[in-house]
Amino acid sequence: MSKSHNTQSCGSFDHEIGRRAFLGGLTACGVAGLSGVNPVHALSEPEFTKVLKAKDRRVILLWLAGGASQFETFDPKPGRPTGGPFGEIPTNITGVKISELMPKMAKRMDTTCLIRSLSTGNADHVSGSQLMMRGRRDEPNLAYPDFGAMVARELAQKESQVPDYVSLFSATEGRRFSRLSQGFLPGRYAPMRLEESMKPPNLEKLDKISQGDHERRSQLQSLLNQRFLSSRKTSVAESHAAAFARVNGLMSSQKLFDISDEPQYIKDMYGPTLFGQQALMARRMVEAGVPFVRVARAWWDSHAQNFETHLELVPELDRVMSALLDDLKARGMLDNTLVITLGEFGRTPRINPGMGRDHFARAWSASLSGAGVVGGSVYGETDENGEHVKKNPVNAGQFVATVLEAAGIDSSKEYHVGARPVPLVDPGIEPVRDVLS
Amino acid sequence: MIRITVGLIVLVITSPSLWAKDLLDPSTPIEEAIDHYIDARIQAKKITTAEQLNDFTLIRRTTLDLVGRIPTLQESKSYSISESKAKRAELVERLLKSPEYIPHQANEFNRMLYGSTQSDLRNYFKRVFETERSWDDVFKELIRGKSEDDKTPDEERFLKDRLRDQDRLTNDVSVAFFGINISCAQCHDHPTVPVWKQDHYFGMKSFLSRTFDNGGYLAERSHGSIKFKTTEGQEKQAKLLFLTNVEVPKPKEPDGKQRAEEKKLFEKSKKEKKAPPPPQVSLREKLIEQGLDESKGAYLSKSLVNRVWHRLIGRGLVEPLDQLHEANIPSHPELLDWLARDFRNNGYNLKRLIKGIVLSKTYSRSSEWNHKTEKPDADNFAVGSTRPLSREQYAYSLKVASTNPKFFAEDIPADQRQNKLLQLQNTSKQLASSFTAPGDNFQVNVDEALYLSNNNKAHIELIASHNKERLSTHLKDLDSPDKLVETAVWTILNRPPTQEEKSILVSFLADCSETKEKGSPPCEQLIWALLTSSEFRFNY
Fold first, then answer.
1. Same domain for A187 and A324?
2. A296 with A359, same domain?
3. Tens digit of pLDDT per residue, chain B (540 long)?
4. Using the beta-carbon criterion (under 8 Å), do B319 and A30 form an inter-chain contact?
5. Contact B455 A201 (CB under 8 A)
6. Min CA distance, B348 vs chain A (Å)?
């Protein structure tokens, strides 16, 4: 009996550390909770420090929807039959060369770690996206959360005034392939999606209600809630009051989605494209405390005319990514903000008769910049034609574990779904320690 | 440490042979049996309990649980002034007979078997409650995929929706009807339940693995069995093994020629879009036989009793609900046994069980804890629970509360009042879809708060005084702020305001009118604050 109970944890989401209920929880469990913090560990010093340290980390994911080519970005093979027409250029890190389409990033490689050995085995848009976002496939009885939702879950403040997880995907192409989900985590960690419009729904006060009345009625409601809750303290009852307490903060976070008050030189850095503007929004959001923002740029799926596509998209990525890193650095935020570029897969070494590259998940690249990673490092290597991983292959689970660790999150931690312990990444999966600072 | 010791003692004194003969007499009314067992443990542990509910809260809780909405102003008031000794029993009778009972129970049972997924069995469950079908019939019909009256194809859906994934099918059947999540025994023997082996998982799967979709119809082959690999890598043939450890002898498989014939028949019926022929021996029928033979482990009745208890009381006698195995001791083993026996002995009658639970004193304990001593652990059932409304309950209640109470006044004929309610229940479906369905670990979502705060449609549907349907229209016409506050609190929160609340709310109205800005009148702000309050959001 004690064995089955020991595997359950019943702390609430809201009070992770040192909550008395945890002791009660060992036997008197409500509907089994999902608290990820093991009580013993939570109280021991190193873990506690880690939690605190993690609190101010943020993550921005630049999602290259459709699958960018590693040859035309971070793993060029000039002169090889698979290399295509573009050359490579040296970077500010000796010995590391990237595509000539990325001259700005070439000057900033000290901030960035390249992983050139992703080998993830799924070259389908839908399930490949899910695999890269979750690090594993869903089970019949268990939907796993995105790493965005896990980051939100781990890093969001209880009474945060801003959203926990925002996803911007304004291109219509490829959007239906991208199925983000909080999985088994509570709805709070579902992505706030900005797809149809640049403004989140229901963030703006109704015109017919005056500002004064709006404030007064929420004060009254909050007073009524306190009276009701004072003799009925439970996590779910408190979550109701907490949700309304976040409304005004979220409403004021509207300004995060409006970049009009940014100085012109900042706007110029990011450039006039929607992707640039949204990356700037992402910076505003992480600055205000949003733990995870995904900005999708579509559509990289260059089955035909791969080189024209990349000639258009890579320089934009180069500009936006560099601007984002510079901007974060200038604000002293780069040490706390992890910037990732990733897609669902890379593209084939073989150039098809339509001058395109097809889906390829056997040997491709991603980048990690800023917080928690060893800048200027390159992990893994592909063979001379980029057909196979020659050294240090990284699968989706390892990649997600690495992202979580870089964000200051212990990837070996467990959640509980009912009585079942579910680790953040599959058992036995280790982060790539070599790239973690 | 202390708790573990207590648990061990319970384990020792509750071995089946010892208590089976000591169960209370079967003729005891359900509510008395419940209070007997719950109170016995409370007294033994010298625990203080919460008070019994006052009339306002009792009618609110019962109405929410039985028909899925808050009471109307009229219902609340007349219940609280009634001096009838039998008024609680009369209330329960009235609600169980109400036409709203059927769709509400259909919603709840659908949620129980389908969680928060999109597809549903609501129409099927409506028929179950209309015709007062028993739970053993529901089990048979959903596993068979057809009912005695064979009226609609709804009952096929439980299996058909899951056929694409045999593992999910296996686990969902096991969780839904037997309260047992065996998915942990799929890849390895169960980590925490020593009696469950991979054999049990694949045993359960074997009953279902011959079932498939034949051109839109549920079909079952007469042959086929599954093999699996143990963690040691050994290949094993799955047995037809039920959770009770009963192994069903495998029926003789047809020879190659017969199989080919069967295949042809399947193809023929597929082409003709007809129901396929039945198998020589149906393994699903074998599963039904095993499930209904409750002599070796009453999973079917215990699981259902535990689920209904959980829904009405806020916590199961066994937690989690899908871990109804021997190693997981119920908080009140005798009560679970008594209730399961009563359920079986009385033809698996759902209404009887629901009625018994809501009439108990355990059900009607207040959720407030104002004592200085620490609140007792929830598994004592000494304090009522604070349960979030399901999205259907919430939407329907919002509609009722925001409707002009004149529609439900005493001078309106009863059938007209009832029709108005049914109409609101029906139109609340769309509003319900804008809320998240509560599941395990439910937390109220900020999207809900934003929706109710700033969405124009929600404002027009619930708050704005633009026609005579709205509560706000009615309140605007009242002459004194006192009366306005009184009516608003009664209508929305189903109780009179306290003196203190009254003065707070009256001065709130005055503050709102002072600004005299454009738009929405003060009473609308008051309605908003009450409708979106925690008190309204929960069944407490």
1. yes
2. yes
3. 344 444 444 444 444 444 455 899 999 999 999 999 999 999 999 999 999 999 999 999 999 999 999 999 999 999 999 999 999 999 999 999 999 999 999 999 998 887 655 557 888 999 999 999 999 999 999 999 887 665 567 888 889 888 888 888 998 899 999 999 887 777 777 766 777 788 999 999 999 999 999 988 899 999 998 898 888 888 989 999 999 999 999 999 899 999 999 999 999 999 998 889 999 999 999 999 999 999 988 999 999 999 999 999 999 999 989 889 888 899 999 999 999 999 999 999 999 999 999 999 999 999 999 898 999 999 999 999 999 999 999 999 999 999 999 999 999 999 999 999 999 999 999 999 888 776 666 778 888 999 999 999 999 999 998 889 999 999 998 989 999 999 999 999 999 999 999 999 999 999 888 766 667 889 999 999 999 999 999 999
4. yes
5. yes
6. 26
Helix (H, G, I), strand (E, B) or coil at A195: coil
Q: Report the gap between the CA of A26 and the closest CA in chain B (Å).
A: 9
- Out of A34, A220, A420, the one facing B508 most closely (by C-beta) is A220
Q: In this structure, are A252 and A301 located in the same domain?
A: no
Q: Write the pLDDT tens digit of every residue in B282-313.
A: 999 999 999 999 998 899 999 999 999 999 99
Q: Is residue A274 part of a domain?
A: yes
Same domain for A263 and A384:
yes
Task: Indicate whether A103 and A163 sit together in one domain.
Answer: yes
Pick left, alpha or beta for residue A49 (phi over 0 → left; psi -120 to 50 → alpha; otherwise beta): alpha
* Residue A158 maps to a domain: yes
The token duo for A204 is 């703006």
- Assign residue A370 the CATH number of its domain: 3.40.720.10
Total domains in chain A come to 2
**Cis peptide bond N-terminal to B309, omega within 30:** no
**Structure tokens, B427:** 């139109």
The DSSP-derived string for A6-68 is: HT-----SS--SS-THHHHHTTS-SS-----S-HHHHHSHHHHHHHHHHHT-EEEEEEEET--
Q: What is the pLDDT of residue A25?
A: 31
Q: How far are the Cα atoms of A133, A429, B364 from residue B108, in angstroms, in the given order? A: 34, 40, 20
Residues A319 and A220 in one domain: no
- Number of inter-chain CB pairs under 8 A, A vs B: 204
Q: Is B183 in contact with A224 (Cβ distance < 8 A)?
A: no
Rounded-to-integer distance, Cα A128 and Cα A191, Å: 19
- Out of B445, B448, B519, closest to residue A209 by CB: B519
Segment A250-289, tens digit of pLDDT:
888 888 888 999 999 999 999 999 999 999 999 999 999 9
The answer to whether residue A239 sits within a structural domain is yes
Residues of A with Cβ-Cβ distance to B517 under 8 angstroms: 210, 212-213
Under an 8 A CB cutoff, do A232 and B368 touch? yes
Q: In angstroms, how far is CA B158 from the centroid of its own chain?
A: 17
A203 and A132 in a common domain? no
- Which positions 132-151 of A are in contact with B (Cβ < 8 Å)? 139-141
Interface test with A, best of B175, B329, B501, B534 (most A CBs within 10 A): B534
Q: Is the dihedral of CA A344, A347, A348, A354 positive or negative?
A: positive
Q: Shortest Cα distance from A58 to chain B (angstroms)?
A: 21
- For chain A, positions 285-304, list CB contacts with chain B under 8 A: none
Contact B462, A54 (CB under 8 A): no
CB contact under 8 A, B315 and A202: no
Chain A residues inside the 8 Å CB shell of B386: 232, 234, 236-237
- In angstroms, rounded to a whole number, what is the distance separating the alpha carbons of residues B401 and B489? 10
**Cis peptide, bond prior to residue B251, ω within 30 of zero:** no
Domain boundaries, position A342: 56-196+259-410
Indicate which of B11, B381, B453 best probes the interface with A, i.e. most A CBs within 10 Å of its own CB: B453
A186 touches chain B (CB under 8 A): yes
- Whole-angstrom distance, CA of residue B135 vs CA of residue B349: 7
